Backbone:
């Protein structure tokens, strides 16, 4: 079976002059090599396609694949993660991970929270700031938390993201609006413990592979699992597997969110507790990083003794049900 690989390679974009921050979500070549060699060891034939523009060229030359392993995040627009799946749908080529609707929805953290809240699941109260003039309309109690509406990998998130008063709120929102040229999500700050839940499978077959607590060390940027803390996780973060009642509560919230939003094959749900120890949905990652050692999803697998090969196998088995 021929598996095409679609991905955004960070080095390609850095060569074109894009900055570290602009390319933060993109993949390193070792991730592509890991996926490719694992697929080969599972008996698949592989073909590197590249990003959406490479895919357009290859499709227009008449090339086809039995299935595509897609981890493209894209560059522009709220549909940036949906572009490759939408193109593949047009050619009736099956692919791994979620469909265009889910990838566009979940990239928009505000719209996602509307749906999650409508599912009856806990998520902090929030306000989407589209324009500077929206800031004065926010009537949520402090402390608050502000982040770009549609980014990942901790982009735009640092110790200043926790906001204690209206002056900080104005400054941070203005800064984020200017820098990221997209709305800002402002929500109630969750002061409790933080977890991320690894999920494989789709709908009723979805299951948790484990719940990992993210504990920041004393030298880390305080209070938040920020870009800097993620990039330097080996020195700044301790990861430990949760169990017992906490694990169960986080798994329930994560699986209900995953199934309710219609996410597929594998990914992660990020959760944080409020001051009363109640877990809240922060965000879902239907295209979670899958670097074998550096990304949270494979880190959870490593900690629970699940080989990387099994993770890739399960992703393919889940996706192949749509062939
Ligand atoms: N409401 C909140 N209260 C407290 N901390 C928050 C809140 N929202 C986000 N955070 C902190 O910011 C971090 C990053 O937020 P979020 O997961 O939305 O960003 P991301 O960049 O999409 O992450 P990822 O790398 O998982 O894609 C969280 O892991 C958490 O530490
Ligand atoms: Mg996150």
Residues:
């Amino acid at each position: 079976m021929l598996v095409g690989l679609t991905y955004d390679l960070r080095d390609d974009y850095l060569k074109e002059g894009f900055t570290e921050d602009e390319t933060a979500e993109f993949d390193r070549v070792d991730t592509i090599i890991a996926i490719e060699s694992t697929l080969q060891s599972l008996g698949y034939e592989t073909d590197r396609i590249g990003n959406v523009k490479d895919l357009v060229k290859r499709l227009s030359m008449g090339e086809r694949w039995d299935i595509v392993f897609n981890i493209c995040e894209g560059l522009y627009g709220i549909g940036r993660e949906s572009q490759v799946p939408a193109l593949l749908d047009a050619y009736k080529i099956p692919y791994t991970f979620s469909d265009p609707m889910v990838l566009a929805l979940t990239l928009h953290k505000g719209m996602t929270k509307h749906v999650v809240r409508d599912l009856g699941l806990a998520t902090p109260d929030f306000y989407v700031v589209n324009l500077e003039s929206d800031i004065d309309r926010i009537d949520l109690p402090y402390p608050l938390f502000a982040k770009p509406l549609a980014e990942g990998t901790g982009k735009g998130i640092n110790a200043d993201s926790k906001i204690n008063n209206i002056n900080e709120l104005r400054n941070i929102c203005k800064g984020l609006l200017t820098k990221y040229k997209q709305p800002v999500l402002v929500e109630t700050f969750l002061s409790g413990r933080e977890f991320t839940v690894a999920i494989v499978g789709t709908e009723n077959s979805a299951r948790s592979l484990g719940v990992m607590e993210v504990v920041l060390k004393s030298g880390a940027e305080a209070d938040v699992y920020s870009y800097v803390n993620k990039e330097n996780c080996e020195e700044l973060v301790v990861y430990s597997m949760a169990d017992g009642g906490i694990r169960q509560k986080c798994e329930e919230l994560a699986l209900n969110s995953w199934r309710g939003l219609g996410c597929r094959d594998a990914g992660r749900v990020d959760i944080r507790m409020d001051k009363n120890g109640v877990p809240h949905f922060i965000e879902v990652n239907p295209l979670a990083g899958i670097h074998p050692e550096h990304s949270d999803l494979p880190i959870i697998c490593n900690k629970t003794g699940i080989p990387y090969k099994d993770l890739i196998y399960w992703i393919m088995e889940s996706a192949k049900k749509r062939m």
Notes: The pocket of adenosine-5'-triphosphate (ligand 1) is lined by residues 124, 145, 147, 151-155, 157, 187, 189-190, 194, 224-225, 230, 270, 272, 282-283, 285 (CB under 6 Å). The mean pLDDT is 96. DSSP finds twelve helices and twelve strands in the chain. The radius of gyration is 19 Å.
